[in-house]
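TA notes, week 10

Several of you asked for a full example with nothing omitted. So below is the full record: structure tokens for the whole chain, then the designed sequence directly under it. When grading your own attempts, check the secondary structure regions first.
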């Protein structure tokens, strides 16, 4: 049987995975703090009919050899943590990380998740929580009589509780970074958890040890570029169609072989 049937089938499967990644990028083009992904591929094993450098005669060797590939597979889906554009909201509890780092969030099971989404609100007790009510860590509580909140670039949170009183420090936002952020595991809800590939979390104050700064009243938009994703989608679609035509051509060749008398 022609190897091209299986080879082209692996190409169609790879482009299907590629299209799935592109579709997820486009779907999250308006998701705060979302990081686009890119499918990466590698070729499969080769059938070697003649080794490169094999002897072809007395004092002569094959300059190239004969190796026929067996297709392609999806090797990885890599997250791109390039900074997204800025959206100004003027909400005092919205925070953008300008540079590397993640906000640590306590999940309902007690585990700590990490996010680039700086959309925070006051919870029932005054503590800052994300969209799903999960606490920002370390916990920062805004007094109920606060009339103004200021978050500095270094994460320091100060509140004004009276018309004549001075600013009162109620805590400091901490950021966390990883040696290999691309190795983080996505769990949905704009959250990541560490893996063996990401390394251990390294926590510190914004602006220190390579961590980014905090910008109050603005958010980081998704870093998805719709034009790039449309180009990638068209390319994946054309590649998928071409692989399907290879299967059709291989099938016709097999029919001609079967019709031989």
């Amino acid at each position: 049987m022609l190897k091209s049937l299986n080879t082209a089938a692996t190409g169609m499967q790879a482009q299907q995975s590629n299209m799935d990644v592109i579709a997820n990028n486009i779907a999250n083009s308006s998701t705060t703090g979302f990081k686009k992904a890119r499918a990466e591929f590698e070729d499969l094993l080769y059938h070697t009919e003649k080794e490169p450098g094999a002897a072809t005669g007395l004092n002569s060797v094959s300059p190239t050899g004969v190796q026929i590939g067996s297709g392609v597979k999806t090797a990885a889906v890599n997250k791109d943590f390039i900074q997204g554009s800025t959206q100004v909201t003027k909400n005092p509890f919205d925070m953008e990380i300008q540079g590397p780092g993640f906000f640590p969030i306590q999940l309902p099971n007690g585990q700590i998740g990490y996010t680039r989404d700086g959309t925070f609100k006051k919870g029932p007790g005054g503590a800052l929580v994300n969209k799903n009510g999960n606490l920002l860590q370390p916990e920062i509580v805004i007094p109920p009589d606060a009339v103004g909140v200021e978050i500095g670039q270094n994460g320091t949170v100060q509140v004004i509780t009276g018309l004549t009183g001075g600013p009162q420090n109620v805590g400091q936002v901490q950021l966390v970074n990883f040696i290999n952020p691309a190795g983080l595991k996505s769990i949905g809800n704009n959250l990541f958890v560490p893996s063996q590939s990401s390394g251990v979390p390294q926590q510190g104050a914004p602006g220190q040890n390579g961590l980014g700064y905090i910008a109050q009243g603005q958010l980081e938009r998704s870093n998805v570029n719709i034009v790039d994703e449309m180009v990638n989608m068209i390319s994946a679609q054309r590649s998928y169609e071409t692989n399907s035509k290879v299967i059709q051509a291989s099938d016709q060749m097999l029919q001609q072989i079967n019709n031989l008398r």
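The chain has two helices and 21 strands. Use that as a sanity check on your answer.
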